[in-house]
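Design job #97: recover the sequence.
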């Protein structure tokens, strides 16, 4: 099945020489079966700086701008940050969803509801097993919003950043930059049923005490709860925008935090 849809393997193939240029290797971290096809998952480490950064994309297969923008970032930008940071990068968490441009992964479920849960799927297990001994200062989890009502882009800030005025100021700076590009920011008081502060959804001060985070089963929340990452920032670009705009914003978002890291 996957052989007729070359998107995932084609993207991995373009990333392999990119990591080689960075003196890194995109390595297989596990595999699972989709029908009768064995599907490998890949990750890479790069850089040798003191701050530990995790970048993940492609948990939701239809949110194509996230892995594609990450690929552009890896090709053109990552080399500028290798002395300040050590990166762990999982470019596509949901290969079959990326191939089919659909949200769900194996088991026909939303993988971002099953991290840390007993009834999870192979993709969840492979990713958590790979990350279990890590400790990240900051996790950038790349997502998009289907946004059928054209409400605009927004940010989730989970963990240490969710109660830090300095982090909020930086988030607003980035959201203001998005507005300056003529792209809408969702400033509604509630987004997806959650309390939002002018485009930022704080995932609770003291995330460990927020039962919703554990219940949600998202990768970002799960890693904060396990003490693997201190902070997660998730930018949700609106899929109402052109792919070109979304790539531009997502790529800029990664560069923004790497140029302004705090704490
Ligand atoms: Zn998503």
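Job complete. Output follows.
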């Amino acid at each position: 099945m996957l052989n007729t849809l070359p998107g995932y393997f084609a993207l991995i193939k373009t990333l392999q020489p990119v990591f080689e240029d960075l003196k890194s290797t995109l390595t297989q971290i596990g595999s699972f079966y989709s029908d009768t096809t064995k599907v490998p998952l890949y990750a890479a480490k790069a850089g040798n700086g003191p701050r530990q950064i995790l970048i993940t994309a492609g948990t939701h297969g239809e949110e194509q701008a996230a892995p594609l923008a990450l690929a552009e970032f890896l090709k053109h930008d990552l080399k500028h940050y290798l002395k300040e940071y050590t990166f762990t990068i999982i470019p596509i968490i949901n290969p079959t969803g990326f191939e089919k441009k659909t949200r769900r992964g194996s088991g026909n479920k939303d993988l971002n509801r099953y991290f840390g849960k007993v009834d999870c799927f192979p993709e969840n297990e492979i990713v958590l097993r790979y990350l279990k001994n890590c400790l990240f200062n900051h996790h950038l989890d790349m997502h998009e919003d289907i946004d059928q009502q054209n409400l605009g882009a927004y940010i989730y800030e989970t963990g240490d950043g969710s109660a830090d005025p300095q982090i909020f100021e930086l988030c607003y700076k980035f959201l203001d930059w998005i507005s300056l590009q003529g792209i809408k920011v969702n400033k509604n008081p509630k987004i997806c049923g959650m309390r939002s502060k002018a485009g930022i959804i704080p995932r609770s001060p003291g995330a460990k005490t927020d039962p919703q985070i554990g219940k949600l089963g998202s990768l970002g929340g799960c890693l904060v709860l396990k003490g693997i990452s201190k902070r997660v920032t998730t930018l949700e670009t609106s899929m109402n925008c052109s792919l070109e705009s979304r790539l531009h914003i997502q790529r800029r978002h990664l560069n923004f935090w790497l140029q302004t890291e705090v704490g």
